[in-house]
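We emphasize that the prediction below concerns an isolated chain of 145 residues; any contacts that depend on oligomerization or on bound cofactors are therefore not represented. The input was used exactly as deposited, without trimming of termini.
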Amino acid sequence: METKVRLAANEEQALREVKNLQAEGFNLDEIYVMTHDNDRTEGVAEMTNTNEVGVAEEGLMTAAANLFRSKGDKLRAKMESLGLSSSEADTYEKELDRGKILVIAYADRDGDGYPHDGRLRGDETTLPPTGIYMSGRDNHNSNLF
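Result of the prediction step, given as a token string:
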């Protein structure tokens, strides 16, 4: 796994950092942008043709936990899902507080498929909707085998 981080003061500089990361061998689908404001993050991602950190990167459990976290805690969790340490995420979150744009390149260069927390990407357990297996069956007299 390889993670590279760049800070940008504005959208123009963010675009330059994206191009620099591409020149270093990262694909656009491996580059993420983050700001302290959701609308700005969306706009920068659209302008630079990069990504926002979502459930696929965070994992289902982190995304669910983020529903109950403060903005700063959410941002740090997203950064950690892309391979940054807790202390690095704390440092960069303070820069986002100052209006900076974070450009993060995250690639699974070693091919193990593991993010920083040891889970395989997409290896989340999801439960089927309630009743999907028993619909239309007489539950009292059903034979499961």
